[in-house]
Amino acid sequence: MQLRSHALEALCLAHPRDKVDAVQTLWRNSDSWELDARQRIAAPLGDVLPGRPPAPRLVAPKQVVTRSPFTPQGLAGLIHAVCHIEFNAINLALDAVWRFELMPENFYTDWMRVAFEESQHFELLHSLLQSLGYQYGDFDAHDGLWQMCEKTAGDVLARMALVPRTLEARGLDATPLIQSKLRKADSPGALRAVEILDVILRDEVGHVAIGNHWYRWLCAQRGLDPVTLYGELVLRYEAPRLKPPFNTEARQRAGFTDTELNYLLG
To answer: Where are the domains of the chain?
Structure first.
């Protein structure tokens, strides 16, 4: 079982249930993987990556309606937004596995584990969404995460800098704020969402740490300064400049240094 080829197959799957099942089956069969790290793999001709269902409709980020957790529909919309992030995160991890050759074996194992954990997060949130009478796809969503994935497709260093440790790291900052709103809503669905977000935040610290590890490893391989280079990459790829408040404690656990945290505050 060639891991990277199977990761690409999972990425191409459009239906969320099929994608989740493929990822979880692949992870459970890790003993039979062949880590084909030196093979250059081409995406199938005609396939649009990633495979996605017809819904949700993807719109510009500013067109996504802000949802309040204090109404049933608003709560469902908020949960759907996080569910969409987790579905995208599955695709982001799978893309890292198949796209970048000539990396150490642990790189592929790390990102396959991330894909598996993201699939679990999606399942938890989708089950809650269904209990509220909705499905994934019932609300509009945006495509900002995947757009940065496409921008950085040609350089694994840029990918590590600007997807896990930039865009996904925003979740470390946003999650406690979302949980605070959900606690104030104080409905059974909102409180269940708080519990699920506890699981997601715990795992996301590890995912961002993986991004930090491989970003620094690649910088060391190329003889580059991680802090100076990061600022250059933000400008080159037009990545969003992150704004406070920051979850300093979670970011420190994910491996951000004091110098990097000061840069964010700069």
So the answer is: 3-36+63-265
Secondary structure class of 15 (helix, strand, coil):
coil
- How many whole angstroms separate alpha carbon 163 and alpha carbon 179? 23
Q: What's the pTM?
A: 0.95
Distance CA(7)–CA(10), nearest Å, equals 5
Q: What are phi and psi of 59, to 5 degrees?
A: -130, 175
**How far does CA 170 lie from the centroid of its chain?**
10
Strand ranges inside 42-108, DSSP E = 58-59
**Exposure on the CB side of residue 230, measured as CA atoms within 13 A:** 23
Query: How many of the other CB atoms lie within 10 Å of CB of 62?
Result: 6
Give the per-residue pLDDT at 46: 57
Q: What is the DSSP string of 157-184?
A: HHHHHHIIIIITTHHHHHHHHHHHHHHH
Q: Looking at the domain 3-36+63-265, which fold is it? A: Ferritin (1.20.1260)
Q: What residues are paired with 58 via a beta bridge?
A: 141
pLDDT digits (tens, 9 = 90+) for 131-162: 999 999 999 999 888 999 999 999 999 999 99
pLDDT more than 70, % of the chain: 98
Beta bridge partners of 141: 58
- Residue 50 preceded by cis peptide, ω within 30: yes
Reduced to 3 states, what is the DSSP secondary structure of residue 2?
strand
Average pLDDT over residues 224-238: 95
Compute CA distances 24 → 27, 82, 90, 98, whole Å.
Answer: 5, 20, 11, 16
141: enclosing H helix or E strand: strand 141-142
